[in-house]
Specification:
The complex is a heterodimer of chains A (108) and B (175). With 108 residues, chain A is mainly α. In chain A, 84% of the residues lie in helices and 0% in strands. Chain A is rod-shaped, with a radius of gyration of 28 Å. Chain B has 175 residues and is an all-alpha fold. Chain B has helices at residues 2-10, 14-36, 40-56, 67-84, 87-99, 108-120, 123-134, 139-146, 150-169. Chain B folds into two domains: 1-102, Orthogonal Bundle (Rna Polymerase Sigma Factor, Chain: A), CATH 1.10.1740.10; 105-175, Arc Repressor Mutant, subunit A (Orthogonal Bundle). The chains are: A mainly alpha (108), B mainly alpha (175).
């Protein structure tokens, strides 16, 4: 081996010392955790305007809806509650499935 | 592969983004360790910031197939910010302690010489050396990622390599 080749080999070994393992679950988990926190904050912030709009709409509609709700309320409230919970479960399940399913990016 | 993962991650897939992190974490961290010329911990913390920033701006990536260059561009800008913030001095102190714990494939004298030589390179030279010499990138790829003219990258790599090899023989090199 020539001196030049020896130096090249030493240089390559020096660079190789600085390379982390190809797979590092701790690092990946830390990144995933930070992304999840950012996503949670972004989701809450994105919901704020919709919540404000919904509250304003309900506040405007209450005088018109009050007589109807008083009449139908006892009968319809359980049905509406079940429908709302079912819709929430379906939407949450679909969103979680899209985020976590590997099928969405697998190729071939 | 990156393009389909980026498309899925943009659509909200955590699994796809995790796969991107798994594919690129090792080379990005290695690049930052070499470019910062300092502590592995600092480089790894910065690498986390890089991936979080990449997640936040995936929507602005024009060409999903250019994800790797784009990611290294973010890493390089973060590294420059860290160096300007004066973190390198602290990092070198920690690196000296960490070096003592590493595998002894390179002799301590050679390692110290090479680390000293790396520290004398300019930021741009060090980044070019880290990508082209250590990671095997082409000059054109490095030029695109670092936003440095191609000719400058070539001269940075040649001069950087000459200086590192000179450091191994103890020769003075003013390149």
């Amino acid at each position: 081996m020539t001196p030049e080749q020896t130096k090249d080999r030493t240089l390559a070994a020096f660079f190789a010392e600085q390379a982390p393992p190809a797979r590092d679950l701790m690092f990946e988990a830390r990144v995933a955790g930070r992304v999840a926190r950012y996503r949670a904050v972004a989701t809450v912030l994105a919901l704020v305007p919709w919540t404000v709009a919904a509250v304003a709409l309900l506040w405007a509609l209450v005088p018109m809806m009050a007589p109807v709700i008083e009449g139908l309320g006892p009968t319809m409230v359980p049905a509406f509650a079940i429908l709302a919970l079912t819709a929430l479960a379906v939407i949450t399940g679909q969103a979680a499935g899209n985020r976590l399913s590997p099928r969405s990016w697998r190729v071939g | 592969m990156d393009a389909s993962l980026v498309t899925a991650a943009r659509a909200g897939s955590n699994a796809a983004f995790s796969r991107l992190v798994a594919r690129h974490q090792a080379p990005v961290r290695a690049f930052l360790r070499r470019a910062l010329g300092g502590s592995f911990d600092l480089a790894d913390d910065l690498a986390q910031d890089v991936f979080v920033a990449a997640w936040g701006s995936l929507g602005r990536l024009k060409d999903p197939s250019g994800f790797r260059s784009w990611l290294y561009g973010i890493a390089w800008r973060r590294a420059q910010d860290a160096m300007r913030a004066g973190l390198r001095g602290q990092a070198r102190d920690r690196a000296w302690l960490e070096a003592a714990e590493r595998a002894a494939e390179v002799s301590p004298e050679d390692r110290m010489s090479l680390e000293a030589a790396m520290a004398t390179l300019s930021e741009d030279q060090r980044a070019c050396v880290a990508l082209c010499l250590a990671d095997g990138w082409s000059h054109a790829e490095a030029a695109e990622a670092l936003r440095i003219p191609l000719g400058t990258v070539k001269s940075h790599v040649a001069r950087g390599r000459a200086r590192l090899l000179a450091a191994l023989t103890g020769e003075p090199n003013d390149a």
